[in-house]
Amino acid sequence: MVSRIRIALAAAAAVAASGCGLGAGQGTSDVTVTVTRGFGSSHVAQLKQRKIPGSETVMRILERHFSVQTRYGGGFVESIDGISGSAVKRDWFYYVNGVQAPQGAATTAVHRGDRIWWDLHNWDATESVPAVVGSFPEPFVHGVAGKKLPTVLECAKDVAAACDRVSKELGAIGVPVAMQTIGTGSGSDSLAVEVGTWRDLRGQIVASLIEQGPAASGVYARFASGGSSLQLLDPHAGVAQTLGAGAGLIAATAEGSSSPTWLITGTDPAGVSAAAGALTPARLDDHFAVAVQGARDLPVPLRAAT
Question: Which of 44, 125, 229, 276 has its CA 20 to 30 A from that of 160?
Answer without folding.
Answer: 229
